[in-house]
From TrEMBL, chains A, B:
Source organism phylogeny: Bacteria, Pseudomonadati, Pseudomonadota, Alphaproteobacteria, Rhodobacterales
Name of the protein described by the UniProt record: 2Fe-2S ferredoxin-type domain-containing protein
Molecular-function GO term, any one: iron-sulfur cluster binding
InterPro entries: 2Fe-2S_ferredoxin-like_sf, 2Fe-2S_ferredoxin-type, Beta-grasp_dom_sf, Corrinoid_activation_enz, Raco-like_middle, Raco-like_middle_sf, RACo_C, RACo_linker
PROSITE patterns: 2FE2S_FER_2
Every 2Fe-2S ferredoxin-type domain range: 6-110
Gene3D superfamilies: 3.10.20.30, 3.10.20.880, Domain of unknown function (DUF4445) (3.30.420.480)
Length: 679, 679
């Protein structure tokens, strides 16, 4: 047996098998199902199948590998080595043939299904398995005696050489086909899209000869306020460029409900908003491609996450049904279409767009993406995932069950409707501490790493000035005021007399806390007013009530851990969030930030087609809780108005941040609830 | 048993079964697989399920039907009868319930799979089975507690109420969905396209409430010279309007090769020609819809047949590869797309277009359609099908094997390149007889039923005049000249002396035959020149050589029958065609005309989706013979120059039209062959 075949062992997979002497390594890998890449299909020109043979004794594998276990480099390998350079020890898997027992390592860059490590330490890595791949084929030339179309011969080549059956060729590619085949002398590289569904694979692009790529995909998070796009290499998943712009729909309304109202009140208003967001997306695509120096023709896929209203406006659906019970979506399923269907003229006409499914009329594809990214359905312990934005999406669950709802927090958490509030931009206060003894604040502004009481702060912020307070700043400010005893549990700001600091000044019938006053120098006066406190209370009550509603539904009074998601979530300190009672009490080290989890979900769906099947199944399994029609939501909302809460105990919080027992209520202020809006 | 169930017998199918008393007739029909229509799904509003119960003794079926074997008309039926009228004896199948043994006739108009009788007596009827059907569904209203999209609930309704699984809803219909569902109060009628492939069914249109249709389809024959469209009712297949226009591509070249040359010599020339034909198609669609008073929104399907060059120019493919060996098609498979893909803005955006498959680079979808219509593959005897146009498509075969080729006859058969030739239009001579004794002609012109020697002819033709000679006229003229001894077998026209008639007059070194001379009155002088004879000889030689080549390939010297197809084929008399040697010798009563068989094939593919599968399989099975590279074609071509033929005997022709043995060759005329062109 040793005379005619040999044992081939692949690492790291450990797959092994006996093959006749003379078998190319690539062939052996394919037959064993080893994950070894190849674009050219074994023609020795793409070099994607590089492997690293090992020689010597391998007691672990029970083999000894002789020096001549692989064939010597042949002419093809030498030529490749001279032209492009092979790393020492590396061989082309399609050229090197087995001559004896051998151990062959497949380096990560030669694997199709690479692992993409995510930033968050506890996050699952993304396994690369993009829907679109590059394959080179040799197409039979036409034969008058056996006439078939060039398209049919290309399809046959894809089937026999790559196992891609019945590849659909869109009309515009058919029109270009003959020229490309002849230019490539019947060798062409095809970008074939083969997704997670039963649909036939689809040709997305065709290049004459060998085209090595890479192909790119775009993961887009269409938020009410900002649109963020990540351009990813579909080969290894790395983000080559990211860019964000304001959602131009803001001119039609700051929050979602005001945009729905705009559509209701203005015939054609939905179409206007659709055009606006699509135009912005085209600008964004162009910007991100320019930044990454990528030819847009190589961007062949895109994924989109968004809340239901953005989802409808992106797809060109009138959102008015989302403005009223029963909040019926046009479609809750994932939508798979071409870039032109979405008006994305900046992408190639054949590029694909995949819009993730929605969970419900108020819980959109963004929440589905968060679920995909944070995977509560795979969690052993009970996890609460809160995606804080203009609207908050909340997930609660574990392996047994996952619940979801959305809660109308409004834009206060983003610094809107706050007297000194502003968007996160240089000059905005983003961190704040109040000395509990002196009641004096110190803060940091965006664009400067120094605290306000450190040397050089004034100089460093001279250009930007200190202009206002952003979303994370206002949360810290309110929480610090509560911890410093400037604010009582009901949310009342004390007077200078009650608090012992002149920074608490009268403001009509209530008080405000002065953080910074540069009016003598012509600068800004930045305060936290009683109105600001009320706005934050409304927002956090909505958030907490949503979470509490899910906990009721789940039948629990506490959760094992909390994940803060959303671009904004990354900036909230868990302690401050808990002091405000934004989230239920939990050990602080069990409260983590997932960053832009929705965007990560979009990226996962871009890089791994199985993840699309997963999220499509997941949204069906998630139990939706509709806050708008749930009477208990209102009860929870009222109870959550206090800081941190009127009735729920916060034992874990008490361990790390005992809150002063103060009360400033002298009957002078109306503490009643205000009207709140979804948005 | 008789107490609880009853025997239900349906005619004409003869299907029978026992059903519990109280079973609606429609339910019984469905369970037995009886072909009984319904759009509303049994709601008693569409009336498509009308049936005719019979009462009394039926010894043939072994039952006696009591008067009360069906329930009395219920309120729904009475209401329908009052509002719309039910024919006497008719019942609504969904309302009438079985109360005893019953015999129920399903009248033709209540059958889905109606038979459409074709004009030609020996043609198979078309069985209606259009890809698109109307179905009414009741969609569940949205429920906040179980949120799904309106689209998903529509899909569920289509699946549960009609067995239509996973219906795809295109984006523009998604955008309209919510409005239509609410307008129809959750009852809507869907046009669902479910073709012969594995592809998921597809929503083409949606109407609120009950929409009774009908839906229409367009069968289009895109010829080099003319484009013809038939608008068909997809319910019963009848042609509601037909219209034809000139192919505007004529301005880029009369024949196919000159259009290919135009594309070769003019960058963008192919796109110009594509725009031209698409524009013309839009005009044609509009015209035919106006003529039939049909809302274009109801035209949901279309089928197209055309030769390969037209096929490419219609689909937007550059045809230059078709101008040179190996004549590679972009695609030979059928192409299924949307109307906008073909630039058909006159059709609804979701309307489907199905372009039949091509057989080879010279044998197009028109020939495939002829094969579908004339079905040589289903013929017991050996049939030669000749589709005569600017290019001739020829099929030869029987159940065992079918061969196909095309032959470059040129436009002579259509009256082009003929000295007095003109297109078929009022004033054109279309029929002609020559008295063998007097050598005097009599003729008929288009627009007048009288012969030229009949009383009133001059008056009847005063308006149009006698302006020229059309395709069928020139064939009759040449054949009559041969039969009258004015033309010898080599094709030479005799002199006045040789023929004994002054109508044979000198024309340079040759002669011409004067049919009509109105020059004294300022009218036309219509003659057949020696050059005309040569043009006809070239055309008919090409046609015969193609047929003969197929016969060689088949290994036969004669065929059992000949079918003349093509719009022009309908006007050629078999005897005259055989005198010219256009077709092989055969008993004259075995030579029939199939009319526009390509157009009929398009209509069959429109009305019956299984026919699409059939033609797609058929084109793969047909053996293609490429005349351009076959040396024997040239030999056959030369031998076929004589009238009827230099060597092949025409015994059947001799029985009915013995040809005078004359010879006018005095060595004065060059009888050499001329250059011929494909086209």
């Amino acid at each position: 047996m040793a005379d005619t075949d040999a044992l081939v062992i692949f690492t790291p997979s450990g797959r092994r098998g006996r093959f006749p002497l003379g078998t190319p390594v690539l062939t052996a890998a394919r037959q064993l199902g080893v994950d070894l890449d190849s674009v050219c299909g074994g023609r020795g020109i793409c070099s994607k199948c590089q492997v690293q043979p090992s020689f010597g004794a391998f007691p672990k594998h029970g083999v000894t590998v002789a020096e001549d276990a692989l064939s010597d480099k042949n002419a093809v390998e030498h030529r490749y080595d001279e032209k492009r350079g092979l790393k020492p020890g590396r061989r082309l898997g399609c050229q090197a043939v087995v001559q004896g027992d051998i151990v062959i390592d497949v380096p990560p860059e030669s694997q199709v299904h690479k692992q993409v490590v995510r930033k968050a330490a506890d996050a699952r890595p993304i396994t690369m398995d993009a829907a679109t791949r590059l394959v080179m084929v040799e197409v039979e030339e036409p034969d008058m005696h056996n006439p078939t179309g060039d398209a049919e011969r290309l399809q046959a080549a894809l089937a026999t050489q790559w196992g891609l059956q019945n590849v659909t060729i869109p009309l515009p590619l058919l029109a270009d086909l003959q020229g490309i085949l002849r230019k490539g002398k019947w060798q062409v590289t095809a970008a074939v899209y083969d997704d997670h569904t039963d649909a036939a694979p689809r040709l997305l692009a065709l290049w004459p000869g060998l085209f090595e790529g890479p192909l790119y995909g775009l993961a887009v998070d269409v938020g009410s306020t900002t649109i963020a796009a990540h351009l990813c290499d579909l080969n290894d998943g790395h983000v080559v460029a990211s860019s964000g712009i304001m959602n131009p729909q803001i001119r039609f309304g700051e929050d979602l409900m005001s945009r729905v109202s705009y559509a209701m009140l203005n015939p054609g208003g939905d179409a206007e908003m659709t055009s606006a967001v699509r135009e912005a997306l085209n600008d964004l695509v162009t910007a991100v491609a320019v930044e990454a120096k990528v030819d847009p023709a190589q961007i062949v896929e895109s994924t989109f996450v968004c809340n239901p209203v953005m989802h409808h406006l992106l797809l060109g659906f009138d959102p008015i049904e989302l403005g009223q019970a029963p909040f019926a979506l046009v479609t809750s399923d994932a939508v798979s279409l071409t870039a032109p269907d979405l008006g994305l003229s900046a992408l190639p006409a054949q590029a694909r767009a995949y819009v993730l499914p929605c969970i419900a009329g108020h819980v959109g594809a963004d929440a589905a993406a968060v679920a995909l990214s944070e995977a509560p359905h795979k969690s052993d312990d009970l996890v609460l995932v809160v995606d804080v934005g203009t609207n908050a999406e909340i997930l609660l669950g574990n392996k047994a069950r996952v619940l979801a709802c959305s809660s109308p927090t409004g834009p206060a958490f983003e610094g809107a409707q706050i007297s000194s509030g502003q968007r996160a931009a240089p000059g905005a206060i983003e961190r704040l501490e109040i000395n509990p003894d002196t009641k004096e604040p110190r803060f940091r502004v965006i664009g400067c790493d120094l605290w306000s009481d450190e040397d050089g702060f004034d100089l460093a912020t001279a250009t930007t000035g200190i202009t206002g307070i952003c979303g994370s700043g206002i949360i810290e400010a309110v929480a610090e005021m509560r911890m410093a005893g400037l604010l009582d549990p009901s949310g009342l700001i004390g007077s200078a007399e009650q608090t012992g600091t002149q920074r608490c000044q009268p403001d009509g019938r209530t008080h405000e806390y002065v953080i910074h006053d540069a009016t003598p120098e012509g600068g800004a006066r930045i305060t936290v007013t009683q109105g600001d406190i009320r706005a934050i209370q409304l927002a956090k009550s909505a958030l907490y009530a949503g979470a509490r509603l899910l906990m009721d539904e789940f039948g629990v009074d506490s959760v094992d851990r909390v994940v803060l998601a959303g671009a904004f979530g990354a900036h909230i300190s868990p302690k401050h969030a808990m002091v405000l009672g934004m989230i239920p009490d939990a050990p602080l080290d069990h409260v983590t930030s997932a960053g832009n989890a929705a965007g990560t979900g979009a990226r996962i769906a871009l890089c791994n087609r199985a993840a699309r099947a997963e999220v499509e199944q997941l949204v069906r399994q998630i139990d939706k809780v509709e806050t708008a029609i749930e009477p208990r939501f209102q009860e929870h909302f009222v109870a959550a108005n206090a800081l941190p809460h009127a009735t729920d105990p916060f034992p874990e919080l008490a361990k790390v941040a005992p809150l002063p027992q103060v009360s400033f209520n002298t009957g002078g202020e109306n503490t009643g609830r205000r009207r709140r809006r979804r948005g």
